Amino acid sequence: MRAFLPLAFFLLPWLAAAQQPLRVLKTYAFSKGIDTVCHAGDSVCARRLITELLYGHAPDGIAYTGVKENLNVSLLTVLTDSVAAGRDWYRLLAAHEPEDLRYCYLEDYWARGCSDEYAMDAATLAALKTALNEYRWLNRFSAPLKVVVNIPAAQLEVRNAAGKVLLRSRVIAGKKATPTPVFSAPVTQVITYPYWNVPASITRKELLPKLRNNPGLLNEMGMQVIDKNGKTVDPSSIDWQKPFPYRLRQSTGCDNSLGVMKFQLKSPFDIYLHDTNNRAAFSGKNRFLSHGCVRVEKPVELANAVLGKQVFKPAFLTTCPANPVSGSYAVSPEVPVFFLYKTLDVTETGDLVFYEDIYEKAKEVSSHR
C-alpha cells in the first residue's frame, strides 16, 4: 500500500461521474508531473498517459540503454480499456506505480509546488518532473537488484525491487571536460586486481608527451607497452619521437589506477565502475575528477551485493600481494546499472536535496523547452 496519495486520487471517483474519462486520467497524470498534451485519439492518448504513469520515459540525453525493459503489456491494455469504459482504474493503476517511498514524497512536493501557496520556481518544478520520471522509468526494469548512480550527487545506491536502499556509497564521477554519460548497462563481471588498459585518448593527450621527455616514467607508473598482438614491447626498443602504434597497460596491484577491483559493464563505452588507488579523494569537496569512469568508495560491499553473497572481506582492499594475478567472478544473473542525472532528489525522511548541475545539463534541457 502506498504511504499516501495526492488529493486528486480521492476526488477521482466523483470526477469520473462528472467528466469524460480521458479528462479524469489527464487530471491524475498532471498530479504526478506528467505532460498531458496529446493530439491523438482518446484510446492512444489514454495508453500513452497510463504508460507514463507506470513506466515513465527514457531520461533526457540518455546515450545508451543496455538493460532489457519488462513492461506489463496486458496491464496497460486492461487499464486503457477501463478508462475508455469509465470503469474504476485508479486502484489497479496505483498498485503498480513505483513503490519507493521517495517517489511518494516527490509527488507531494510536486502537488505543493503547483499550488499558489508554495509557488516553486520553474527550475525546481522542472527538476521535480525529471526526478519523478526517473523513478517511473526504473519501474520498466524488473530486476530484483538495481545499481543506481546519480551523477550530480556523486553517489551510488544498490536498491531492491521495492526501492529500498541496501547500500549507499560515495563515488567520483567524470569531470566537466570528460563527463560520465547517462546510460544503462548490466554488470557482467567483478574483476580482481585488474589491468588498466589506458584509453587511446589519455595515452595520446596526457601520457605520451611526458614519456617522450622521460621514458623512465613507464617503470614509475607500472606501465607496459603492448603491441597489436597483445605482446609486451621493450621500451628501450621504441623511438619515442616517432608515431606510437602501441597501447599502454598498467600492471595489476594496489597502485593500479583502478585499484584492486573493477566492475565490467556490457556497453559500447569504455566506462565502468572501479576501486581506486587514491581513496582519500572520496573525502574531498570535489568528486568530479575522472575521465568518465566511476570510482566507488565501497567496492567490496558492491561486489558482494551484485554477486549475491559475501565473496570478499573488507581487508581485501588493503591486502597488497606482490605481482597479483588478475581474476574474475561472473555476475549471474546480471545486475543492471543506471547512470542518471538528477539535480534534485529526496531523502528517505522526505527532505528535498539539491545538487549542483555540474555538467549544466539541466540548463541545456530547459533552454530547449
Automatic annotation (TrEMBL):
<comment type="similarity">
    <text>Belongs to the YkuD family.</text>
</comment>
<feature type="active site" description="Nucleophile">
    <location>
        <position position="293"/>
    </location>
</feature>
<dbReference type="Pfam" id="PF03734">
    <property type="entry name" value="YkuD"/>
</dbReference>
<keyword id="KW-0808">Transferase</keyword>
<comment type="pathway">
    <text>Cell wall biogenesis; peptidoglycan biosynthesis.</text>
</comment>
<dbReference type="InterPro" id="IPR038063">
    <property type="entry name" value="Transpep_catalytic_dom"/>
</dbReference>
<dbReference type="GO" id="GO:0008360">
    <property type="term" value="P:regulation of cell shape"/>
</dbReference>
<keyword id="KW-0133">Cell shape</keyword>
<keyword id="KW-0732">Signal</keyword>
<dbReference type="GO" id="GO:0004180">
    <property type="term" value="F:carboxypeptidase activity"/>
</dbReference>
<dbReference type="GO" id="GO:0016740">
    <property type="term" value="F:transferase activity"/>
</dbReference>
<feature type="signal peptide">
    <location>
        <begin position="1"/>
        <end position="18"/>
    </location>
</feature>
<feature type="active site" description="Proton donor/acceptor">
    <location>
        <position position="274"/>
    </location>
</feature>
<keyword id="KW-0961">Cell wall biogenesis/degradation</keyword>
<dbReference type="InterPro" id="IPR052905">
    <property type="entry name" value="LD-transpeptidase_YkuD-like"/>
</dbReference>
<dbReference type="InterPro" id="IPR005490">
    <property type="entry name" value="LD_TPept_cat_dom"/>
</dbReference>
<dbReference type="GO" id="GO:0009252">
    <property type="term" value="P:peptidoglycan biosynthetic process"/>
</dbReference>
<dbReference type="GO" id="GO:0071555">
    <property type="term" value="P:cell wall organization"/>
</dbReference>
<protein>
    <submittedName>
        <fullName>L,D-transpeptidase catalytic domain</fullName>
    </submittedName>
</protein>
<feature type="domain" description="L,D-TPase catalytic">
    <location>
        <begin position="145"/>
        <end position="314"/>
    </location>
</feature>
<keyword id="KW-0573">Peptidoglycan synthesis</keyword>
